[in-house]
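Re: Re: ligand-bound prediction request (bumping)

Still looking for help on this. To restate: I need the protein modeled with iron/sulfur cluster bound, output as structure tokens. Inputs repeated here so nobody has to scroll up.
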Amino acid sequence: MNHAQIIEIKPESEIAPEPVIDSLAEIRNMVSACIQCGTCTGSCPNAFAMDLTPRQLWYNVLMGEKETIFHSKTFSLCSVCYYCTLRCPRGLPLTETMSALKQIAAKENLAPYKKSIRFYKSFMESVRRHGRVREMEFMTLYFLSMKNPLMPLQFAPLGMKLMSKGKVSFEIPSKGSNALESIFLKVEELEQR
Ligand code: SF4
Ligand code: SF4
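Reply:
Sorry for the wait, this slipped through. Here it is.
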């Protein structure tokens, strides 16, 4: 598999297309017992950066507000810590629901999530090749996928700082050992089912 296959991005969609409606119905079922108590919001370490709190996100899911949901950054900022899931008094699978929303955004290649989807795919490509992330290669893949020649300049000061402290080493991009290839292929197979 080459780069182009792995970081191939479908044409961007500004709003969620119709098939999302069915997926959203499934997601609504996952949080249908929400009583809007706000415990998830109070537990979430990333809530301060979210435009909708987790509680507000579930409200919009319950109301079927597709436009609001898929223009929100909230689910893309979930770091999968599971605090909300552990503390929800209704025992709802909130972390999985956040992940399900991320999957829809990635599958439909929705424009508001373009950066985070490409960032994630570039990260995983490096892990797939080497069994761990190689920072220089990861960022190179990300810049290439973004097709913005000015983007590396924005990161240059941070990159220099990290290199000067020995946090990032210079490594020539390579195909790596592909030691995790069988695991990635198995996951891809399971995702097709
Ligand atoms: S903690 Fe559970 S019940 Fe309370 S608002 Fe969040 S999802 Fe709803
Ligand atoms: S799992 Fe996600 S939404 Fe839940 S508390 Fe952690 S970061 Fe917040």
